Amino acid sequence: MAARAVKTNPLSPDAEQVLRALDTARERTLGLIAGLDDQALERVHSPIMSPLVWDLGHIAAYEDLWLCHRHGGLPLLRGELARLYDAFETPRAIRGEIEALGPDDARAYMEAVRAHSIQALDARGVGDGVICEMVIRHELQHSETMRQTMMIAGLLPAGEPALTALSGHERWLTVPAGVFAMGAGAEGFAYDNERPRHDVEVPAFAIARRPVSNASWMRFSEGGGYERREWWSHEGWAWKEEDDITHHPAIATGDADAPACHVSWFEADAFARAHGARLPTETEWERAASWSSSAPDGLAGIGAVWEWTASQFEGYPGFEPYPYREYSEVFFGDAYRVLRGGSWATDARVAGTTFRNWDLPQRRQIFSGVRLAREA
Q: Is residue 163 part of a domain?
């Protein structure tokens, strides 16, 4: 990147590694939008999503705040933009109405912040690496969020979404009862909601070896799945009726054997009830994923679509917010449901067995599907 030219002193090997990862994330971000004109970048494609150009400014402002300012001790490059690109100060509902940076200025801001980051790393090194890794992953996660917006707008690049057929039948894996260590260990990078690791005793259960396919979902839909009241929760039925919900168009047009995608939690819950099953708890999901990881015939399709669980988003016993409360703790409670596993759009650096995603039960802009569970 052009910003690398401002470096005046050799950086440490660790800092060079961080910069390579930052550059890789940036190439992914800019490559994603390379074919879009300014109008597509500035338009509000959905009221629940940001204009794509706002994401660009936010990515830069987040890097400047955390890597340059809080880690490197440098003044903010453009302090007047901090509030504008703060996700809590400027909610999605108003991001299309504010005077934000245009596409050219946003790209210039991203490049200037990267030069600022090089100065910070030159002066302070990487420290324990936590802030650096957080900034890298933040940008990678936004490339998935931007893909969600682009999916809604019909702007995804050729070849996306990258959902392909899964081999095998929708069979079941029985996981024996046992105690396992849930969550991320003390070493390495993890988000605050993944810690502390703690022992959990899990009764035996069965879990589907693969996510529900488009073909299975269409059988559910065509068999009255969106008409049979007894399969829906009270809240789910009210949402479906109010918004006149039926299956997502991508399910009907996708490969029959590919995982069903753009499924809300309400729909996943109804589908499970219709099949005499249920959604796995996130404890069961992580237990199955870790227990079967070395088995030749374990869980298939992890990482194809985010998989809804039955669990509400809460902190683990002994949870401590880090490095800021707004990353996880403000979302705890009964409003959000947990998703696991990652999707085709999730970078491998982000996805992992202990990583926890969350969203509202009515949302289906995310690349989400469902893996069923039942009693053993």
A: no
- In a domain, residue 109? The reply is yes
Tokens 């002193």 correspond to: 9
118 in the same domain as 87: yes
Contacts of 315 (CB under 8 A, 6+ apart): 193, 328, 329, 332
Question: Which of 92, 122, 153 marks a domain boundary?
Answer: 153
The CA-CA-CA angle for residues 185, 188, 189, to 5°, reads 100
- pLDDT for position 324: 87
Q: Are 138 and 62 in contact (CB under 8 A)?
A: yes
Question: Based on the domain organization, do 35 and 120 belong to the same domain?
Answer: yes
More confidently predicted of 293 and 331: 331
* pLDDT confidence bin for 93, thresholds 50/70/90: confident
Q: Does residue 176 contact residue 295 with C-beta atoms inside 8 Å?
A: no
Question: Distance (Å, rounded) from C-alpha 97 to C-alpha 252?
Answer: 35
In tens, the pLDDT along 149-187 reads: 999 999 999 999 999 998 766 799 999 999 999 999 999
Q: Single out the residue of 214, 372, 165, 152 nearest to residue 284, CA to CA.
A: 372
- Residue 160 in any domain: the answer is no
Number of domains making up the chain: 2
Domain co-membership, 99 together with 192? no
Whole-angstrom distance, CA of residue 184 vs CA of residue 180: 12
306-312 and 368-369 strand pairing: parallel
Are both 47 and 12 inside the same structural domain?
A: yes
Residue 113 within a domain: yes
Instruction: At 241, give phi and psi (nearest 5°).
Output: -70, -45
Q: Could you count the other beta carbons within 10 Å of the beta carbon of residue 275?
A: 17
∠114-326-47 over CA atoms, to 5°? 80
**Helix-strand-coil split of the chain, %, nearest 5:** 45, 10, 45
Q: Which domain holds residue 117?
A: 2-153
Lookup: tokens for 311: 């669990």
d(CA 360, CA 266): 10
